[in-house]
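Input set for joint prediction.
Command: fold jointly, output tokens.
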Amino acid sequence: MKFKLFLLLLASVHVIFANEVKFGKVSKEEVSETVHPIEADAAAAILYKKEWVYYEYNYENGWSMTKEAHYRVKIYNKQGFDWATLQVPLYVSGGDEERISGVKGVTFNLVDGKVVSEKLKKDGIFIEEVNKYRRKASITMPEVKEGSVLDIEYKVSSPLFWYMDDFWFQYDIPVNVVDIRLDIPQYFIFKKYSKGFYPIDVRESRENRSINVSYRSQDQSGYMARTSRKSGSLDFYETVYQVNTQNLPSLKEEAFTNNIDNYRAAIKFELAATQFPNSPYKNYSLSWEGVAKSIYDFNSFGTELDKTRYFEEDIDNLIAGKTDNMEKAMLIFEFVKSKMTWDDYSGATCSEDGVKKAYKEGSGNVAEINLMLTSMFRYAGLNANPVLVSTRSNGIPLFPTTDGFNYVVSGIEVQDDVILFDATEKNSYPDVLPNRVLNWMGRLVRKDGSSSQVNLIPDQPSREIHYLNAKINEDGSVEGKSRTQYFNQFALSTRGKLSKTDEETYLEEMENTHGEMEISSYALQNEKELSKPLIETCEFANEGQCEIMGDKIYVKPMLFLAETQNPFKMEKREYPVDFIFPRQKKCMIGLTIPEGYKIESLPESSVVQLPEKLGTFSYQIVAQGSQVNVNVSMQLASAIFPANYYDILKEYYKKMVEKEAEKMVLSKI
Amino acid sequence: MRVIVPLLLFLGLQFSFSQDYSYHNIPEELLKNADAVVRLDEMSIVVTAQDQMHISSKRVVTVLNEQGNRYIHAFAFYDDNDKINSLEAKIYNKQGEEVKKIKKRDFLDQSAVAGGTLYSDSRVLFMRYTSNEYPYTVEFTKTYTTPDTAFAPPWSFLDGYRVSVEKSKYSFKVECGIPFRHKESNFDAFPIEMDATTNQVSYSGTNIKALKREPLSPPFAEFAPNVKIALDRFHLEGVNGSASNWKEFGKWIYDKLILGRDQLAPETINKVRKLVKDINDPYEKVRKIYEYVQDNTRYISVQLGIGGWMPISAEEVDRVKYGDCKGLSNYTMALLNVVGIESFYTVLHAGGQMRHMDPDFTSMEGNHAFLNVPIDGKDLWLECTSQITPVNHLGTFSDNRNVLKITPNGGEIVKTHQYLDEESYQHTKAEIFASVNGSVKGNVEILSKGIQYNQKFRHTIKSALEKEEFYKDYWGYINNLSLGEITFKNDREKIEFLENVEISAEGYLSETDGKLLFSPNLVNRDLQVPERSRNRKRDLLISRGYLDEDEFVIHIPQGYKPETLLPPTKLETKFGSYEISIEETEQGILVYKRRFLAKSGRYTKEDYKLYRDFRKQVARYDNSRIILTKI
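tokens >
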């Protein structure tokens, strides 16, 4: 019987470890594989990714967090060589810094049918002091060729125990197997969030742990104080989170996509509370109310927002005698925009300098400018509050965390609405915010700790209206006058472009985008009057607009305003299409045909609609004598279209481009 | 005492200018076409020893608008050897009143590892300042000391386009008796004065107007005034050197940086010998070795100290199987040497814009290294950082320029191959079937050589998605394009690339009044028309030419015949020639032929408009359509 038991034991041990991937133990199959079994054109793949996060305690330094990582990477072809270099960011905060240790690496190659290995040496490891806040470890593997399998492991220990990097599961190469484990002592309450399109299952369990703590103790007995080392054990339980998942597809960037990271499978852990022995339960954020409250507790937010003395006198003078709230708001908004220049740094909280210094210097980061604005609004008696925002490049804030936000604007609550202000952009207007801000929802946080969601994407389409009045000449050239009106977001971006370039360069660019056009008598209206649409007028002459075949002239009635290419060319779409804001383009065109010609045929009028009134394209054309009038409107009522709308959207654009490409035919009388 | 002298000198410099930086003092002519005006740009260099150079500079820039911020240059690059003695910036408002002072400790310190480099020891101190008004002025002063006298700072009186200069002063002084050389370029058209003695040279430029960027113009350095300086005895990262011409300079590089770095382990030597043991043809040997390097190494750049100039040893590369351009070139050279083929490490300026090593002035220059292999009196070139470039394919990265070949006897300036216009060849063949419903479908075969090969051969490592993106962009003018099978044949020996692509598109033919209209040039339209260039000041430069020949067989829909065909067209200009013809060879089959030769060359500024007209015509002909009517 003894014998049998032993065998059984062995067998079970074997079963347990069968799936375990051990560093340095690579199978011949892995090394000889030439193509990824699922994604045949993958340049490389992550065969295995293991990360284990656990806590350690030491009497002198307190808690610290350690992450052990093991990656196994397969290189299929030369395009995948970049994956033979791993970069690990290391944060530095005050005197605390993350440290990397135990870096080990082995490259495996198949040589004459045998697996041959080469170890990573010190000369393949570099630590770079990027700046005050960040260091970076770069690890590059030796003997990398097509077919190589790379094993890399390292450890990062961090005194920043409250901050945990996100766990990513998808890259632009496929990932075969992922094992993630987190052991979180009972004193830390983390909340987890998953995001991305690919569902990730997290298992939770509880385990007991005991650690030995040795500490110094001072004995006051006798003449001299004596220090001795004592030790005790700390018993507690840990919450264990585990993810074991397989075969995650690669993720590829597509045109018209908001930040691709929004769709990447990931799990985020944020510290929700701490409960240390003999200390009160301490709660951090993790409900929207919590976020609102905790961000007010930050000195760089709440305290800065409360400061008013530095501007009181200026604002008193500015709004003296004014009683209308909106008038006061506009005066203050314009004042901040003209006084302050954004230093291009984002942030939902102020820098070390704070609002007062920013005000004095006339420049600051986002929070300094927009918190200052909010506090001036409040000072003037307006119901203003900060609205936390995550910019497009920062991704969508799906869950209530403070570090999910990297930007702040100001919101004034009126009746059932909130009017949004962003003074970082000189040409912005109430409710007309820079594109970077137009990312899903913002969070308005009130002083009393309450908060509410604010839609950042405008409901109303921004409009662009073109009026053309043109004469077609017998030689195929076209000349005429153009008047273009830009509203809201279009006005903002055009004004932005104009203020960054001189007129000559701007016009050259415009001529070049319209092909062989020459522009004269260019004039702008309302360049500085932001409440009104921006109006551009000019005269144009364009040589190459018509085709002459035999004695007929073929010409697109929309001339150079016709869209010539469908922006959606790809067969498949994985992620939503993001147009940033809803929009409408209208063209009203009057054409005079050359003398001695008649209209032989015109394109037919037509209307194309997207389902659920999400968009309408209408093309109306009528002729009267030698005059042709074209009226075209193209509208997208939503900024975002889910990926399953892609085919419909592509078809909509196809029909639009086809219609706009149709030509009217003029023939000699 | 050594330190005190230059310190005093710097102090003197600080006090000698107390200028009025008011915007209103800028001469009107300097504001035109400018985003910034350099009020004063002054640098003075004192060489006190072969390994000690003191540099003090002061730069005052009035920034006129947001674009002008890039000309402030308030930064200091440094590495472990350099000592930055002082650094300070002052900000002045439009009226020229000082509004802020930024001290050295307020400058941000950051690593300055260049893109594409994994690690280096370069760092940068830079100023962070956002102005809330334009114009404003920044005065930036810096003094530093470096042992690396191999790099005597050159001087550009103009920093680029859209910036003008009120005063630019440069002086170079040698206090240790080392002879030095200087070369002035493009001074003629600019108000610059020069003053030279045996141990000192100085320049002063006043009121230099801003230049406007012009499309297809010669490179900036070719017409902007600049000065190059070099010491005959110099120091670089712990290594002394001496040279007054390229021969000596190359000799120094060979002796100090290359020699002895070609040792290899016996196993490697055996392996390599085995590789070529049955090959007699030296060219074939080169190919074998080069492919061995390409299959076994990759590019990783690490630049530390002298490692920025000295290749890591062949033994090291052999162990880790990676290296930068220097390391991989030296490694390949060592392997070739083992099999009895002599090759030469070569330094150059690599990049799409052809930049030459100056044959008339010897100084530390170049940004890349590759390998020269003379076989039977002909030069072969090996780009050792690429895993896919064929033997002797230069591409736009290193073609047609002066490079410095390093031999055991010294340096030698030689020129790399210039691709003749006809050598950069593309032949497109297509057979297309058009149907009554307006769709087309067919097969396209494209053969590319020369520079056109260069643009294609990386296709082989593209993913399916990238290929789809490429062709849908290449044929962007075909709406509703669908791609079928795509295959490539990369002939690395002949340096030819063959693409085979199945295509189809709905609605290619448009119907008007029962007639079908379409453009017979389906798959090779050259629609790029250069931008308009008003009041052009500089020559037209077309760096590289090409020749395209096309033959498309088009099966028109049944029941239709051509109503109009394009008349045979031939355009003959000094910029090239363009020829198209279309013929109905048998009923229902049209054959479209096209030949387009775009010539390289240098032309006058007046020619620009003519060139643009030529390209406009080409674009128009390539777009032009024919009409089919029912039989």
